[in-house]
Write a structure and sequence with these properties.
The complex is a heterodimer of chains A (223) and B (354). Chain A is globular. Chain A folds into 2 domains: 4-91, Methionine synthase domain (Methyltransferase, Methionine Synthase (B12-binding Domains), Chain A, domain 1, Orthogonal Bundle), CATH 1.10.1240; 97-222, Cobalamin-binding domain (Rossmann fold). Chain A has 223 residues and is α/β, with parallel strands linked by helices. In chain A, helix 2 (23-35) packs parallel to helix 4 and helix 5 (110-121) packs across helix 9. Chain A has helices at 4-19, 23-35, 40-60, 66-83, 110-121, 135-145, 157-173, 188-194, 203-222; strands at 97-102, 125-128, 149-153, 178-182, 198-199. Chain A has 9 helices and 5 strands, in the order H-H-H-H-E-H-E-H-E-H-E-H-E-H. Chain B has 354 residues and is α/β, with parallel strands linked by helices. Chain B contains 14 helices and 9 strands. In chain B, the strands form 2 sheets. Chain B has a 7-stranded parallel sheet with strand order 1-4-5-6-7-8-9, sandwiched between helices. In chain B, strands 2-3 form a two-stranded antiparallel sheet. In chain B, helix 6 crosses helix 8. Chain B is globular. The N and C termini of chain B lie close together (12 Å). The relative contact order of chain B is 0.15. Classes of the chains: A alpha/beta (223), B alpha/beta (354). The A-B interface holds A 62, 64-68, 70-71, 74, 105, 107-110, 113, 131, 156-161, 184-187, 189-190, 193, 201 and B 90, 92-94, 96-97, 99, 161-162, 165-166, 168-170, 210-214, 217, 245, 247-248, 270, 293-296, 299-300, 329, 332-335.
Chain lengths: 223, 354
Amino acid sequence: MATKEKEQELIKRLQDAVINYKVADAKKTAEEAVASGADAYKVTMEGLAGGMEVVSQKFDCHEYFVPETLLCAKALYAALDVLKPHIKAQAGGAKGQVVLGVMQGDVHDLGKNLIKAIFEASGWTVHDLGRDVPLKNFVDEQLKTDSDIVMLSAMMTTSMVGIKKLIPMIKEKNPKVKIMIGGAPITEKTVEEYGADTTADNAPNALREAMKMLDTLRKGKAA
Amino acid sequence: MAREEMTSLQRVAAALTFGQPDRVPAAPLVCGASHRFSGLTYGEWSQCTDIDAMVQGHIDALDMIGHDGVVMLVDLSVEAHAFGCEVKFPEMNTAHPNYDDPYLKSHKDYKKIQKIDPRKTQRMKGVIDLTAGLSKQIGKTHAIVGFVYGSIGILSMMRGPEAFFMDLMEYPDEVMEAIQVVDEVLVEYAQAQLEAGAHSICYDHLYASQSILGKDLWEKFEGPSVKKVTDVVHKAGALVSFHNCGNGIYFDMSEKWGKPHAISHAYVADDVDSWEEHKAKWGKKIGTIGWIPPGPVAMLGTPEEIEEECKAEIEIFAPGAGFVLATGCEYGPNAPLRNAKRIVEAAKKYGVYE
């Protein structure tokens, strides 16, 4: 069992490795955390998610751009792969579950992958369907996983139109599920027109929107 | 509506050189959308095998919509394809590389990229032939804008964007070496389009915005590429334009490296906060081709919304010329064509210069 001081040191090192995109350092520190018996969930959430939160802030204020953020995510995954098997089920405490994918006919998955990294770092369970996903797969995956939110990405008007068709398909099976849409051609008007719940213009904003929707869903269940 | 005194070509040239056009030109970027006039599927159109049908498609689109210029964009994979990248041609969707099996599988593969002759290679030849075909028919009356996808855009298609962006930071030397080869080809490609009759070359520097790369990183990798290609265009006395549909575009870098007459864009420059500010800061130096949102307005907008949007944009940007009313990115290949016509009609209604 690692001491509190050791755990704090490991958390700080993980944060630094993610923020400064040091892939080897991230992996090595994660291995050290496991070997020292540190709480894997705690170091994941405070170290990796904490680091990624700083990355999101840097992205928001244009200090980091896509390449830097991708490398941060690479460092994050290098550590997460080591820590994940050691996170105890009861400590899992997933914030929520999302089904995520790029619409049929569209292969632009950069934004989707950044969202996945930020959500996973923040403790969400992400069911990533990849790119060029047939509409029916979103419906099936939502039902299978009972996910709270379905997130649909489209970079082109040709793939965007599939969203209009897909939303009623998802809502018909599960009216309570929340739907977030995003990508270059999508605006608030598209959200309204297609019957989605919200949109976000980048990964950190997507996380904020998802947190709000999850909160609404859980309040609804409690009531 | 006043009688039009200029040809479309004169109008576009006057607008982009800050002269005195009779009205705001309109060019709703109906590139892929023109396939719907050609009798070809989108997939067939993108393969550039029936140039006569493509020429006729553009001419018929001009007849129906009435825009002032045509852009030679087929899709962004044309150059990568010519360099050897496998490309998929969906029947009703935009052609794209096979990202499941990228041409450049690791940073070591950048060495695979060899110089090609654009005048002889696949779809680059197709674009040159298309330009020549259109030049014969409308070269004296309408603006023909050649199109070159930027060096790092091409490489990102061959490698896959995600891996490519990380390579920029992890393997800069390998990327840089490949850029030199691509640049040589792009210079020849621009030259060939000009010789075929293009009045302008549009260089797509998609990653020169806050949406993707930091300014320093963009400048390091693509600034010199832009200069090489645009030097050729300037030297030929043709107009230089850029396209960038990212958010927070680096107009200062564009000016530094390419001295463009205009930029086709969907969002404001990174150093201003509104369209009014953009006009005040950049409107006398670099023309704007834009910025009607292709999705919510051009594709989904009601006739009233389209007219309102066009009117508002003209009010801000028409004064002093340097403005072409256009969509901020390519007109949706599947969007209602009537809306493109509405954009042209709005330019005629609200964009007349006294």
